[in-house]
Each structure stands twice: as C-alpha cells, then as structure tokens.
Amino acid sequence: MLFREALVCLSVLGALTLPIRPARACGPLFPPYFLEDRAGTLSVLPSGAFLIEAGRLVPRPPDAFQVVESQEPEGARVGGGTEETALYEAGARAFHAGKWDEARERFQDVLALPPEQRRRFSTFAAFMLGRMAESAPEAHEHFVAVRALVREGFEDPLGLAVASLGEEARRHLGEDDAAAVRLYAEQAAHGSASGTTSLLFVARALTQEVTRLRRALHEPVVQRLLTTYAWTRGHEEIWAEDGTTSHPPALAPLLEELAAVPTLSGADRLAATAWGEGRFDLAERFAGRERTPLDAWVRAKLALRRGDRMAADQGLAEAREGFPYEEDWVGDPYRYPLRPRVRVDVERVLLALLRDDFSGAAEHALSSCSWPDLAYVAERVLSVEELQRLVATHASDPKLQCQPESTFRWDETRVPPKLSEPLHLLLARRLLREGRGAEALEHFRGTPWEEPARQYVDALDRARSAWWDVDKARALYTAARLARTPGMELLGTEGAPDWSWVEGNYELGTWVPSLERPEDAPPVHPEVVPAPLITPAERGRLDAHVPPHLTRFHYRSTAADLAEQAAALVPERSQAYAALLCHAARFTSRTEPERGQRLWWTYVRKGALSLEHPIPSFGQECPEPDFERLRDRGLSFRWENPRPRTLAAVGGFLMPMLGIVLLRRRKRSLRSPDGR
C-alpha cells in the first residue's frame, strides 16, 4: 500500500513538473541546424534541464543505493524467514488499522531478532518506525538506521534507503529548509526522480517567500539549488491540476538576493542566468568565479559582446574540453538532445567563418559531429580540393567514427551511420556533379550506389568518345536516365536545394541561408550579433559552388539537359527526337513545368504531325527512343559531328589523288623499254 501511494504521488508530481517548451504545431522534428540561426547561435546561451542539474547539487555518493520508484519489483515483500515475516506482517496490519503502538512493538520485535534471522525485513521495519516517529530527531534516528542497515548488507528490495532521505527531508520543510534541501539533494544524487522533483517544489516555495529564502541562503547547497532554478526554470509555466498555468515570481528579485550572498556557490549558473536576462553587469561580476565549462561559455559570450573574438574562441575551446559529448541538456528520449559540446563546437565554426578561416571552420564542424552543420561547410563553403584534403587527413581519425543524431528519430529501426559514410558520399556527389567521375568512384566504392555511379560515368565517357552521333545520343540518354532515377544518391545535394539528408522529403531552406529566425526562438542581444553574418568571402564561395540548377531536385534538370543534348544529335523528324524531348519534359514535369511547355512547342513545331505514331501524353508517358531505326536508315552520319566531317573531307581529297597516281604508274608500265 505504501508503495502504491508513492507511485501515485510521483505520477502527479511528474505531471506538474514537466516544463512547457516551445513546440511546432505539426510535422517531424530534425536534428538542430545551428548555422541556419546564426544570430541565435552566437547570442543565446542555452539553459540546462533542472531535473538533470538537480542531481548534481552534491557529489554522487560512492555507496549508491538502489532506487525503486517506477514499479515495485515482483516478490519484493516476500522471501524473509518465517519469524521475521510473521512479525513484520503483523506490524503492517496494525499500522493500516491505525493501531500504531502495536505496530511499533511488532517492528521493534523484527529488529530485536538476531541479524541472520532478519535479513529481509529489517529495512522495512526501521523505515516504518521512522514514518511513525513523533519528532524529527526520532525520525532521523530511524531513517539513519535504514541507511546503515543497507550499508551493512541487509536487503533493500523497495529502495527504502533512498526513500528514507526524502521522508526525513519532509520533516524539516518550513522549519529548517536548508536541512531539507541537503537531504533531497543527496536523494537526487542517488538518481531519485522523487528527490529532484522535491527540490523543484522547494525552490518554487523559497522564491515565493523571501523570509524563508533568506533564512536558507546561508547553506551552499541551497545557493546552488536556487541558481540552478533561476538558470533552468526562471521563466517556466507551471501546470495546475485543473489545467490552468501560472508563472513564478519575477526573476529580477531572486537575482538580486543571490547576488547579495558573499562567496556565492553556483556563481557560474548565476552568470549564465544574468546573460540570458541581459544583465551583463551581473554576468561580468560573477563570470570567472567558478572555473567550470558553463563559466567558460559565459566568458566567451561576454568577450564576443566586447568584440574580442579571439578571447571568445579561447573561452569556447575551454568550455568544449569540459563538456563530455554525451552531456544532454534536454533529457527527453522523445526529443532531440541538446548537447552543449556540440553547440560550443558549432559556435566555433561560426566564429571561424566570420574570420574567413574556412579550413578551421571545417575542423570544428568535424569535431561537432553535427551533420547538418558539417554538411553545410563541406558542400557549400569548402572547395572540392579542400574537402578532399579534409577527408584524406582524417581518414583514420576517430572523429569520423562518431555517430550523428538520427535524422529520423521517430523511426527506431533506423540506425544513423558513422560520420565517415555520409561525408564520403557528399564528396562523391560533388565530384560527380563537377564531371570528375574517376575521382568520384573512389568515394562511391563499397556503397549501394557504386554500380549506378560507374554506369553513369561510363555513359558520359562513351558520349565523349563516340564517333557517330547516334551512339553519342544513346550514351547521353543512358546517363540521363541514371541522373533521373537514382539521381538523389548520385548527384543530389546534402542540403539545399535537394536536401538529401532528409531523403528529399522536406525543404528546409535555401542554398544561401536566409538567416531568418524561427517565430518561437528566444530573443537575441543585438550588440552580440555582428554584421554581416555571412562575410563577402563566404558568399563568394557559396556562389562558386552552386549546383548546376537551384530548383528542387536539381538532378532532374540535369537529366533533362542530357536528354535535350541527345535530341540535338538526331534528326528532328525522327521518332528518337520526339521520344527524347518527351523524356526531357517528363524528367522535370513537377520541378520545371515551364521547360515542359517549351519542349512541347518544340515537339509540335519540328515534326510531331509527321510521325507514324505521335505521342498522346507528351511529358507523361514516353516511348523509348528507337536508336536502331536511325542506324538502319543510315541517319547515324551527320555533318555536325566533326570527326566524320574530317574523314569525309580528307577522303574526298585523297581518293582523286590516289587515282591519279595509279593511272600514271599504269601508263609507264605500258611503254616498251626502248620506246623512249
């Protein structure tokens, strides 16, 4: 019964303490793309999650107790010896019947048994004696005994050692809030969700009662609790049981109370809160007091505000070294994590871009393991040669073995590949778009797209080396079909305009970032944001590395270009010509409807009515071009091809000359030896 009551209480508290965060109305979420919101990335210092930070107010105890809060383990209330079981069950019946004196006697009888006869229910009995204690000192004695028993090896299947910390803390609330916070903090350090939730309720209560707040602020752990609350939940909305929401008191008075504490514990959190509130004087005052990763991050922001980008980068480098990659400030399995180390790395990417250090930006992007941001730098900013050097330099680097956040987090069956795989494919597609097929094939090797890529490269090589126009047209058409069907995988851009990293299912921006901030984004500090956020040198690189077309699914336009080139090599009134125009229109029917109109009129003007079998659904259903029919009719030889024209010209000159030579030799052979 006791455990069921605890579960109900935890469920209610959990619902009441869930933060209300901005969320999109519909549609899937994707991994953060920090370089798209450059103003926010530079200006905003993200806040942590209270329910994570509360577990760090005190060091994790070396003898961590078992935590049981979600579901009672099966068989937890059985398994003791005959006598201890009978005594404990008698005490439990008396407790629920309201016979507390009798219950106390039975629980004390359990503890009076020899140790070897009460291994199972000793912790149960001591815990219940603590619950029934008539004073805080008496409760303290029994709850301490529970924890001592567990340390001595007595069984604790219900996690009562951890629960005893919360029960003891509850006794101190209102009278000695500092003692309560110390116990709740220890409970939270063991990993108890009940402990962290209790700390949140205590923090809310203290901020609403100045007298209690000032009485408790002498305790360092209380200082850390309230600076953490201000940093993570200062503007929270609180849900009530009736469905209404409320807001805590204004944050400014709490900041002043905290700032008045000499040698404040939690100065880094106060500095971070002050930065978010635009209290730069307070942030400057408390930054540097505690050498933590968060403090280094605040110092970097302050340096950026002063215009000292070098000091800002140094602060970010210091912060990065202090944050483990696994650190997550969201803590919600259904949302993308907010990893401070990743965010710090991308801020360094942005600072490198602002000083036109593009190779440095690529190195920081690689370290971040943030695929959307690395893809931007690798595809749009670096030259192909710079990207090749980056990939070659880090071929065996563990950085390439990191695993970016899954693009499709809602699909648990998908496991994101290591960073090296999409980076090699990005380089392969860039090389293929630039016509460097042999180099591209090196990076397609071992992937599912190796064979289609080889076929595409071979088709273009045949088109370049073909002697006859019909063979050239056939090769171009083969390449066109490959560019259209597996085009995303062979030629598509990772970001705009094709968005391969979301499989082309969503359009998330433009080739040149718009830098527009989301409507629900937190406000920025204008004095921190430099202008322009894209330097002329970076914009010049964006222009230089733009794909052949900027339409969505641009490879379809490439396929249509190849089909039109093939059509230009065959006679205009042939079936192959009409079929090639039809396919060119079909390839771009949804992305370039104006091209389809142009090709339709070309088809009509240049002989559609003369065909034996006109195309009724032009641009939708197209026959295959009949290249063999051209060859059979002798139409494969065209003067537009320079090689046949050269042969014909040379042949036209050499054949008469050869005839003259042969005729003169014959005349000489007919003369007699003495006929001269």
TrEMBL record:
Residues that span the membrane, as ranges: 646-663
TPR repeat intervals: 84-117
Xref: InterPro entries: TPR_rpt
Domain of life: Bacteria
Entry keyword set: Membrane, TPR repeat, Transmembrane, Transmembrane helix
Presence of the UniProt keyword Transmembrane helix in the record: yes
Designated name of the protein: Uncharacterized protein
Originating organism: Cystobacter fuscus
